[in-house]
Amino acid sequence: xxxxxxxxxxxxxxxxxxxxxxxxxxxxxxxxxxxxxxxxxxxxxxxxxxxxxxxxxxxxxxxxxxxxxxxxxxxxxxxxxxxxxxxxxxxxxxxxxxxxxxxxxxxxxxxxxxxxxxxxxxxxxxxxxxxxxxxxxxxxxxxxxxxxxxxxxxxxxxxxxxxxxxxxxxxxxxxxxxxxxxxxxxxxxxxxxxx
Length: 195
Ligand code: 5GP
Description:
Layout: H1 2-11, E1 13-15, E2 19-21, H2 32-45, E3 53-57, H3 62-72, E4 76-82, E5 91-98, E6 103-110, E7 119-127, H4 131-143, E8 146-156, H5 161-167, E9 172-182, E10 185-188, H6 189-194
Parallel strand pairs: 3-4, 3-7, 7-8, 8-9
Antiparallel strand pairs: 1-2, 4-6, 5-6, 9-10
This protein binds guanosine-5'-monophosphate.
């Protein structure tokens, strides 16, 4: 998605080897017009899928997920994060290792908001090693719901998440695909292909 790639080039900051900071438009300050365009793009990419619910994880997934929900006219549910795992009868839950914070988070969703009739589109801000998405897939399984696909705002193709999901035959669409960070600059996958 060109608009997003341009914004990443303009405002994204590469931190260390493999982290991109995008707090100017996605992770802290949020650009609603860009989010709305991304919601429409997810709708186009998953056109025809009988989606009944969008699922994400707090907090950075919520903005893109809500705009996807608006485009699909379906509710959006975000998993909540907890420090400790206290299993509760009325919740589905999973453990997720946080890539950026290097800690385990426990995520959960109330059974009220997901069930076996749901056809789910998972949305998240980043795909790195795939842990966050795996946690959501575990919760979808617990609910007996059906996964329709995964929509990612920014995928880092040099980390292993995408490969793991492809191996499972899951329909994954990413709005921007980063192939590498070179001297602090972002290189997109399509730029690489053109060279
Ligand atoms: P994964 O679970 O796929 O390894 O990482 C996904 C989660 O880690 C995302 O939900 C996001 O919050 C965070 N994350 C991973 N890589 C980055 C990054 O390069 N920049 C930012 N801001 N967050 C990231």
